[in-house]
């Protein structure tokens, strides 16, 4: 059998190792109800990314193109699935996703945006490269994170190793009322898997309608008097998982497998930039809510040899990552951040108002890999004021011509703030991720 590139997982906090073939090993073995402060990171051999042939990018499924780099691939191989069977399983699952979502997973567009670069005053040496996720499955990048979790579940069934074979499938569970909820319900519907979505009391609008169409069970989560601090939806989600539900989560500490497929975005960007223009990127500005997007984009870019500075963007309304970065710096820097989780990261209160409401997670759950990526690349956090959020959103809609939400456009807001500060030069090359579509 072909040796896998991926050895498994290692916890950044306690060092525990999880073997690649271990089924349903979603969290660090030392993570508990009382202490969720653990973060598994992928342990993989360094291997060059194969160029997936971007001339036909629209036709290429990134999970197939970068298959050998996935933890999922090592998992399926370790459990006896041949390479041919692995490729068939991914393709088959993708077709089922496409039947529900209207599209399967395809490498998304990434190019220098001429008008936006000119509008922001970049020279021809520099510019803004836009990764457009608005046409991805479920209208955002979120399904990338969830696809590898689903692939593991389907793999266990196809190998006859699913522990639920005689009892029936356990529910999937997710705490979200935004893009992640839509992505999760879309993937669940693709395979007819029951899903419970934990949402706040005030949730409504187009996301809720889509969840209903997709036949997800929506569970409203008011704060209870006895609840500890933090998001009550996350508390109810954890209770469901403790009672047997599968954590279909886009937060690494709840399910590290979301950090597997999420890396496809960085692998795509790295191979796309290498193909289009060999001079690489100087900066990447990524909007951060719970942190998995930035962690995965950074990991994927690093694997592709792109050493751009990673800037994690948050808004003034909610900036726990920037606070954690300062706290960690005061106490000796990013190298020792893992030992000081409790002293660096805790819920942001009160959360303010912003148009970029998809990145107001009161805790940056995946803060550790983001802090590490910012430190190793010479980047850092950026906190944008609301006027930049609104102007960035307007630029993405009117100049870039992308029908993004304010959250989806927030990387451009971070870029505006960095340009204002003189932290980015007009002859440098900057990438942003327009991560989600405007729903109506
Ligand atoms: C469109 C969009 N972009 C970015 C993010 C932030 O991703 P993360 O929570 O992984 O930091 C979200 C999260 O909800 C989102 O919906
Ligand atoms: Zn651990």
Task: Give short descriptive properties of this protein.
alpha/beta; Rossmann fold; 2 domains; 16 helices; globular; binds pyridoxal-5'-phosphate; binds zinc ion
Element-level helix/strand string: EEEHHHEHEHEHEHEHEHHEHEHHHEHHE
CATH architecture of the largest domain: 3-Layer(aba) Sandwich
- What CATH calls the topology of the largest domain is Rossmann fold
Shape: globular
- The CATH first-level class of the largest domain comes to Alpha Beta
How many distinct folded domains?
2
Number of strands: 13
N-to-C span = 49 Å
Number of helices: 16
Radius of gyration: 20 Å
Q: Could you estimate the helical fraction of the residues in percent?
A: 25-40%
Percent strand: 5-15%
Look at the structure and give the mean pLDDT: 95
Low-confidence stretches: none
- Largest beta-sheet characterization: 6 strands, mixed
Which hetero compounds are present in the coordinates? Answer: pyridoxal-5'-phosphate, zinc ion
What features would you describe in this structure?
With 440 residues, the chain is an alpha/beta fold. The chain has two domains: 215 residues, Rossmann fold; 204 residues, Rossmann fold. Helices cover 38% and strands 14% of the residues. The protein contains 16 helices and 13 strands. Strands 4-5-13-10-11-12 form a six-stranded mixed beta sheet. Strand 10, helix 11 and strand 11 form a beta-alpha-beta unit. Helix 3 packs across helix 6 and helix 15 crosses helix 16. The termini are far apart. Bound molecules: pyridoxal-5'-phosphate and zinc ion (ZN).
């Amino acid at each position: 059998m072909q040796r896998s590139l991926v050895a498994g997982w290692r916890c950044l906090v306690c060092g525990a190792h999880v073997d690649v073939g271990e089924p349903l090993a979603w969290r660090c073995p030392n993570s508990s109800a009382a202490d969720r402060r653990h973060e598994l990171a992928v342990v993989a051999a360094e291997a060059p990314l194969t160029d997936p042939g971007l001339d036909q990018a629209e036709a290429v499924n990134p999970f197939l193109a970068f298959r050998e780099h996935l933890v999922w691939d090592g998992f399926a191989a370790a459990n006896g699935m041949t390479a041919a069977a692995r490729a068939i399983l991914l393709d088959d699952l993708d077709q089922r996703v496409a039947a529900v979502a209207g599209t399967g997973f395809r490498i998304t567009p990434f190019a220098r945006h001429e008008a936006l670069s000119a509008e922001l005053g970049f020279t021809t040496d520099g510019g803004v490269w836009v990764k457009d996720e608005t046409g991805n499955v479920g209208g955002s990048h979120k399904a990338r994170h969830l696809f590898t979790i689903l692939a593991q579940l389907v793999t266990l069934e196809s190998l006859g190793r699913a522990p639920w074979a005689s009892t029936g499938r356990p529910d999937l569970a997710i705490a979200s009322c935004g893009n992640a909820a839509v992505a999760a319900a879309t993937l669940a519907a693709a395979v007819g898997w029951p899903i419970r979505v934990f949402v706040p009391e005030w949730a409504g609008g187009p996301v809720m309608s889509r969840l209903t169409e997709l036949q997800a069970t929506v569970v409203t989560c008011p704060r209870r008097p006895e609840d500890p601090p933090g998001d009550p939806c996350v508390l109810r989600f954890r209770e469901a998982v403790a009672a047997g539900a599968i954590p279909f989560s886009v937060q690494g500490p709840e399910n590290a497998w979301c950090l597997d497929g999420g890396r496809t975005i960085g692998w795509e960007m790295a191979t796309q930039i290498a193909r289009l223009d060999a001079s690489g990127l100087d900066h990447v500005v990524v909007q951060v809510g719970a942190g998995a997007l930035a962690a995965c984009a950074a990991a994927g870019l690093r694997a592709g040899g792109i050493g751009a500075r990673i800037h994690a963007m948050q808004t003034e309304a909610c900036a726990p990552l920037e606070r954690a970065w300062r706290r960690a710096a005061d106490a000796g820097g990013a190298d020792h951040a893992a030992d000081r989780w409790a002293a660096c990261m805790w819920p942001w209160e009160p959360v303010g108002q912003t148009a970029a409401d998809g990145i107001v997670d009161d805790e940056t759950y995946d803060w550790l890999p983001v802090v590490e990526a910012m430190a190793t690349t010479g980047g850092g956090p950026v906190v944008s004021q609301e006027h930049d959020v609104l102007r960035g959103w307007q630029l993405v809609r009117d100049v870039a011509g992308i029908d993004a939400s304010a959250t989806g456009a927030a990387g451009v807001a971070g870029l505006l703030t960095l340009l204002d500060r003189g932290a980015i030069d007009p002859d440098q090359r900057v990438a942003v991720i327009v991560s989600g579509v405007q729903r109506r």
